[in-house]
Every structure is written in structure tokens, then in C-alpha cells.
Design brief:
single chain; 217 residues; mainly alpha; 79% helix
Length: 217
């Protein structure tokens, strides 16, 4: 549970919710930068590390000498959710271009990602009864209030431009991302807690996001 809690606290749903909300608040160009930074952090750092830790937890009881950290990293790299973003980053860095037809096909697939993720999360919420436990409350409090609140205070003391502080705080005030539920289902661990965290964070964000929009306005 601790691994998924850490991911929930540190991975807001900026690519999904932010793409619809942030352009109105901070402008399209700034939103593109914020979403790009969030995606890089999530798919290149947070998700792979989380998958390695979940894989290690899932196999720690198996007496297999091959299941050391290096082997678990290699196993995690086989997952599309890990290698696909890394491959895409390498292709962009190498300035490799694809035909328009291929790009349109990928764009079509990418456009369905948010809907599929939300649909999958909805199925989990339907199958798992929402349970409001202390770990869920702590995770939601940290994700929705503590992280954006400390960011607002800390960045405000650095003398950064108001637009930069506003963009960062609003992005960090976005609720828990669906990747938490997806990984919980993928590794068969703490599905109910993950689904409950996603649900409660989304509900509470109606008030918390409005508050941070107001204080950074």
C-alpha cells in the first residue's frame, strides 16, 4: 500500500484533468509545458520506480534466486507502460519522424487513453466498495491539500513570477491520477484502497481546487 500511496501523493492527473482545466486558467502555451513536465516525471521516473517496487513486493515470498533487483528492473522494462514512453522520448530526441498516416493513427490511439483509463477506473470503483480508511484520508489530504499548499508557500518565498507559481500550484492541486488504480489492478494489490483514494480525491478536489484557484488568482 505504501508504494501506491506514494504514487498517489506525487502523481496528480495532470495529463487528463489538466488538459481540460489548465488552458482556461493559465493559457494553452503554459499548459503544454506543465503537461509535458508532468508526463516526463510520471512515465519516465514515477511509474517505472513504482512498478519495480510493486514487482519486488509481489515476488518477495518466492524462493527464486533470479528475483533480485536487476531482474525485477528488466521485468518492469518489458511492460508497455514503461518502455513505450522511453522509446517515444528516444525517438523525439533523435528527431526521427514518421509518416503522417502513422502519426494520425497514434494520435487516434492517444486520444482514447484518457477515456479508457477513466472507464477502467470506473469498473474498479463499481466492483470495489468505497472504503474511507485512515490511509485513504491521509493520502487524499496530502495530495489535495498539503502538496499544493506547501508548494504555494515555498514557491512564493523564492521570488518566482506569479504566473510560474500559479501554474505549478494549480497543476499540483489536481487530484490523484488513474495510474494508481491501473497499477493496483495490474499487480493485484490494494485495489479497494486505490479506488477509494481516486474517488475521494476527485470529490474533495471540487473544493480544494477552487480554493487554490482563488488564492493564486
Amino acid at each position: 500500500m505504501a508504494t501506491l500511496q506514494g504514487l498517489a501523493m506525487g502523481a496528480p492527473s495532470v495529463p487528463f484533468i489538466g488538459s481540460a482545466m489548465l488552458p482556461v486558467l493559465i493559457g494553452p502555451s503554459t499548459t503544454a509545458v506543465v503537461i509535458s513536465a508532468s508526463v516526463f516525471a510520471m512515465v519516465l521516473v514515477q511509474t517505472p520506480v513504482c512498478m519495480v517496487m510493486l514487482a519486488r513486493h509481489a515476488t518477495m515470498d518466492r524462493a527464486d534466486p533470479r528475483l533480485h533487483l536487476g531482474h525485477q528492473i528488466l521485468v518492469s522494462l518489458r511492460e508497455p507502460i514503461v518502455w513505450a514512453p522511453i522509446l517515444a522520448t528516444l525517438l523525439v530526441a533523435c528527431d526521427i519522424r514518421f509518416p503522417v498516416a502513422v502519426l494520425d493513427a497514434f494520435a487516434l490511439l492517444g486520444g482514447t487513453a484518457a477515456g479508457v483509463a477513466l472507464f477502467a477506473s470506473g469498473i474498479v470503483l463499481f466492483l470495489q466498495r468505497v472504503s474511507i480508511t485512515l490511509p485513504v484520508l491521509v493520502t487524499v489530504a496530502v495530495r489535495n491539500v498539503v502538496v499544493p499548499g506547501l508548494s504555494w508557500l515555498g514557491l512564493g518565498m523564492t521570488g518566482l513570477p506569479h504566473e510560474v507559481v500559479r501554474a505549478a500550484v494549480l497543476a499540483l492541486s489536481i487530484p490523484v491520477g488513474t495510474v494508481v488504480v491501473i497499477l493496483a489492478v495490474r499487480f493485484g494489490t490494494d485495489e479497494q484502497e486505490a479506488a477509494s483514494t481516486l474517488f475521494l480525491s476527485a470529490v474533495v478536489s471540487v473544493l480544494t481546487m477552487a480554493f487554490f484557484i482563488a488564492i493564486t488568482g
